[in-house]
Amino acid sequence: MQPSEAKKSIIQLVEQSTAAVGGDWAVFSGPAVRNCGQPDGADGAAYIYIVERMDTEGADPEADVAAMTALWERLHINVEQYHSGGADPIKGVRGTGGPLNSIAFEADPERYSVTGVSECSDGDPLRLRLED
After folding, report:
1. pLDDT, tens digit, for every residue of 84-119?
2. Share in percent of the chain as helix, strand, coil (round to 5)
3. CB burial class (10 A; 0-12, 13-18, 19+) of residue 2?
4. How many of the other CB atoms lie within 10 Å of CB of 102?
5. What is the DSSP letter of 56?
């Protein structure tokens, strides 16, 4: 996979994911390139992209986690729901496989976030950082 494809793929998946729950989302970080290891042991480049939604008034974290889970399962992403401890746990879902390395959705009633990491692609992260 070429770095441009990895970058485009994770952006599209994160945007598709945020559309599944609605609301206004803003880029928190990225897409930023980082080092990763190829299956053959060679170095490669992956992109991490983080968006957040601050307008969570009226949001339903349980329903939003279910919507995200359904979307990712349709995309053949392996999903695992989770929640933090405590009296008022934060709900979320993590995904791996499919068209990415990993993705996570956190449905905190005060701040939602989606963090996606692309597949490892060919390329030198340092060179790619200089090109961006």
Report:
1. 877 778 899 999 987 788 999 999 888 999 999 999
2. 30, 40, 30
3. exposed
4. 17
5. -
